[in-house]
Amino acid sequence: MNLLDEDFSDNKENKTKKTIKIVVICIVLVLIAIIGIVVYMVYLDSTQLKVVLNGQKNEEVKNLLVFETDGTIYVPVRAISSYLGYSCYNGEYNNKSESTSKSYVECEDEIANLTLNSNKIYKLNLQNQGDGYTYIYMDKPVIARKGELYISTDGMQKVFNTTFQYDTQRNIISIYTSAFLVEQYNVSVLDFGYTQLSENFENNKAVVRNMLVVTDDQNYGVINATDGTEILECKYDDIIYQESTGDFIVSSNGKYGIMGADKKTKVDINYDDIKLMDYDAGLYLVERDSKYGVIDLNGNTKIYAENDEIGIDISQFEENDLKTGYILVDNLIPVRKDDKWGLFDKNGNQVVEFEYDSFGYIANDNREAVNLLVIPDYNVIVACIEDRYTLLNSSGKQPFGAFVDDIYMVIDGGEKSYKMMANDREYDVEEYLDRLGVRSTSNSESSNSTSSNTTNTTRTNTTTNNETNDDTNDTNGTTDNTTNEENNGEENRENVEENNGETENQENNEGE
Questions:
Q1: Full set of structural domains in the chain with CATH
Q2: Residues 332-372: pLDDT tens digits?
Q3: Other CB atoms closer than 10 Å to residue 411's CB: what's the count?
Q4: Per-residue DSSP letters for 296-319?
């Protein structure tokens, strides 16, 4: 080989090495660029909000969230319902309508009623409707956006029985439905030494508060969902979770009491039955030896368990849109003893003796009449003695002192009105109550003064030099005018057997 060939070979080898070096450098640069892009994309992804529903990323739910400047997150009720296993409708469950200011959501086991500008949620267990409605509160009232109702995420958790956790550091929102959690925990609960979760729907709600009502096939207890530590020992015959209070009604040897999630005894286990009457009032209905009474959340007796019945069966008064028959017109507890009914207030004071045959009007031969228990805007209830009817206000007093033949509801074109019959004549109850100065509770406080002045003027025109005072109202805004009417010289107003004086006064008022 000559020198020329050797030089050519060396040049070729050098060029090859340079090419390889360039290629390697390019590959390294490309890899660095790819790594940089990946790191940047990971960074960008970490800055983007992610929403996970039952363990799966969900962009649709993410797009439904509305973030307010105060930190509140809102969701549209109708749109979110289907993702959480519910159906959504306008109006109220027991009062069907197309009102867009009200809405109810429904699943197989429960419905929840919502109302615009209210933070109160009324719930009804569809498997046990006889117990009536319970209620809980959201942190924020329902709002409207472009004609749709929105609730806060706190409201979403309570309406739909879900969890909502926002990890701001990772920028991840995790939502879990109680149905999904129950399915997951039914497997893991075996590791804690129990056979399964309670199958009661009310108990399933405890899951969203990180508590599990469990059974060993013989007894029931409550454990922490995370680590299985005991909250209530597995020794009770039954346990029912109370969503409103967060407590548990427990039973043992046929007796019932109340235990808190802090393991403290709220009510001793010595009643034959116990049921939450009203959360705001903090009252429970209790039964002992087939007699009924009322206690408060701390077990203090409000009404002794010596009565035959407490509460009204509101299924007979569906058009009254009542949520409970235990407390009427915000204050009165109907109680029956020895075939007579009386009334107690929420503090346990008896305000009406056991003298009435029944509360409410049941329509019979009057075709247009509808059953009536309360006139809500005036906070009065219908009471009956010997087939004669009167009204009682929230203090247990009669706005007018007479009894009439009938007091009932009429529905015409979807509009409700209230009538009474006396001496074969029909009168409008609301007009009559207005004339007596019983102001409607639907009026705002700002208009109450004007309404009161107007009522005083009207009454002055129909009475002789009578001095009225519409400020002597009971605590719920209704006025007891019986004393004023007696001063007016109206005769026989308090005569149960006669209503001629009542009719004369009504006729005079009709002629105004």
A1: 52-160 (3.30.457.10), 362-512 (no CATH)
A2: 999 999 999 999 999 999 999 999 999 999 998 767 899 99
A3: 12
A4: ETTS-EEEEEEESEES--GGGGGG
